[in-house]
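For homework, think about our next protein:
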Amino acid sequence: MLQSKPSNFQPAPPRATLATTARQLWPYIWPKDRADLKLRVVLAIALMIAAKAVTVAVPYAFKWATDALAGQAAADKLPLPKVLTGIVALTIAYGALRVLMALFTQARDALFAAVAMNAVRRLAVEVFVHLHSLSLRFHLERKTGGLTRVLERGRNAIETIIRTSMLTAVPTIVEFAFVVAAFMVSFDWRYVVAVSAMIAAYMAYTTVATNWRIAIRRSMNESDTDANTKAIDSLLNYETVKYFGAEAREAARYDKSMARYERMSVKTYVSLAVLNAGQAVIFTVGLVAAILMCVQGIRAGRNTVGDFALINLMMLQLYQPLNFMGMVYREIRQAIVDIEAMFGILAEHAEIKDAAGAAPLKVTRGAVRFEDVHFNYDPERKILRGVSFEAPAGHTIAIVGPSGAGKSTISRLLFRFYEPSSGRITIDGQDISRVTQKSLRAAIGMVPQDTVLFNDTIAYNIGYGRDGAGRPEISAAAANAQIDAFIRALPLGYEAQVGERGLKLSGGEKQRVAIARTILKGPPILVLDEATSALDSFTEREIQAALERVSKGRTTLIIAHRLSTVIHADEILVLDKGVIAERGRHEELLAKGGLYAALWSRQREVDAAEETLRRAGEIEAREEAEAIGGARSSTAPPIEKEEA
């Protein structure tokens, strides 16, 4: 059934920015309930500062070694102990500083890894839990393939943002500050201006070029999501594709999406090449400017050859974090694009929420009552128009009617997948809108028309009815659902895999698993939503017998398409165009000669036609078997008899 957004639907949140993303991620990086992770953050910052201080000291060791080698610096003028003023000692000190720099950096990364991955896990779980809290309407309006792709990219984006910002961006800014201070102390303001101008130009160019690439990246992501959605949708409908011989059509449809992804990917790589080339030019201009000033200083006697080496090495060391800053900016912006949809999901408000102070439902008898319930998915299309009825404790109430009359809507309202537009629903006198959703759904068991199973074992799917159920309980539930013998006959028994959505099982077998699952749950209220309408007559009779055993002693609502399954109900409600047109027992409704009688007559005609076809098939099969048997006997050699 098509459903539109409710009138109070929340508009899409504004596009995420670096500031809003950082603000949203900070509680996961600095969790209030994890003192150990906070300590790791503090130690990682201390190691980062130490590593960058050593990083700036490395070029000075190289400068002093160069000056000593060139004979341009007297040992007593070096700001070092005499034991370290020799060329060999300075060279060893240079190597030791580089090793120390690497050790500090790796120790920082190792300490912060637990912080980053904990943040990824907590936020991913929070999104997963939030998805389950959102309404049925939200999930019906989303494509599963696209949603899973959004979650996958969002999870990766969280890790990217946390690791790049804390392990690259912040350390690089600290290194910039150290380098500028070193140039100011060792040289003069002109070098600081040259380096600062280069950094400013580099970052400005990176920002402009990256912003240009963002639109291309967003289009590439959209085309990737579209292609992935089409692929999953096609594979889930594998049998339908085969029925209509549409393999070529599906391939062309998928190829069209991949062609768009190809174009966007090529644009992404070309734009990256333009960005990298521009960054290289800007950095080289700044490097050459600083070196030329040093050459002039050497000629004037103000600087040494070691200063030349110092500038060159310091600038080259600066290039790596500077290049990382470009990469960090690109990755963070791209990650923001990827995480934007995930934060959009977190911004979605659940349509159905527990009321303030909601108490758990207390089921004493299990009586269900609908009081003047109105409901509509779309304001212009009314589904239920003042439906009122009561299902007394332990009784079976059947709801029948033409397609689109609103039968399944009643079960969705009872589960609080939606709220009535007006009126109320009670269980044992308690308004279900005033109790917790968890307690409400724990009291209701559902056997749907289309049973969807987890891609796991039969034991897991039956055991899903009650968390922590043991194998004996699972087997007992399966036996009550008349599926235990079938399961034990399988090579793997209860450990047999059911496949995607349970496709390895037949319709009847899946329904029995659903019944066993509900038996294990043991709810006081049972809803059978057209649980046998998709089955053949023989399987339906077997399933119906199992359902009657399950519903015994429970308040049961049967939403039925086949009227033969509800003739023993305590009361039958005939729903038509959102109102209860007739009500009563089977015999009473037939005697009225109204809508129910017309539906019954029509079904009897269909059943009779099906029976005629079935018998014709049996006769044809029997005649064919007899013909084959006769042909075999006519061609067989005569049996010789023994002479007396």
